[in-house]
Amino acid sequence: MNVSRQTTTHNNSLIVILWGLIFAKCFTLEYLVKVYAVPINSALYIWTLTLTMATIATFVFLRIKAHESSFQKSLRRNLVIWGTSAIAMLIALLIAFISQSINPYSIPALLAAFLGASYFFQARINRSLSDTISGSGWLIGSGILFVQSAVESLILFAFLILALTVLPVVIQMIRLKQTRK
User: Fold this and answer.
1) Which of 27, 77, 86, 161 lies at a 20 to 30 A Cα distance from 138?
2) 11 neighbors 66 (Cβ within 8 angstroms)
3) In angstroms, rounded to a whole number, what is the distance separating the alpha carbons of residues 76 and 62?
């Protein structure tokens, strides 16, 4: 693997880790707000503020890295998969919030199913065993979350984010760093 590809992988990994940790934090805090009946507007204080700051940080990071051609190529390939997934998740979230008949604690299960499918598409394109394992884990997690459908699904979803998204990327970064030596 050449230096340009390693740098691109490192840059993509930083974005995945950033967003994985942010979503794990948000779902964990949402769980704590629900369990301990904390009288705050979690949509504003947990989700909106955090996601706004993370979005700004991501755009600044992408703007800085936009001039690297290898980064652009990698970003375009992944953007198709994850952009489509994000749009599908946003539509599903919108429908779930508009329709009052859907249990809000089943939403993490739906999101996990989208993540599993996205990881399988990415695994097929990149021929990555790690992505296949993450995709399988997300689909199994989705099934468990659908059965759970209670407040505990929030903390379980946060754990799945850390175990199936953040941890594999951190391991990949460590392996890349070791192979450079």
Assistant:
1) 77
2) no
3) 12
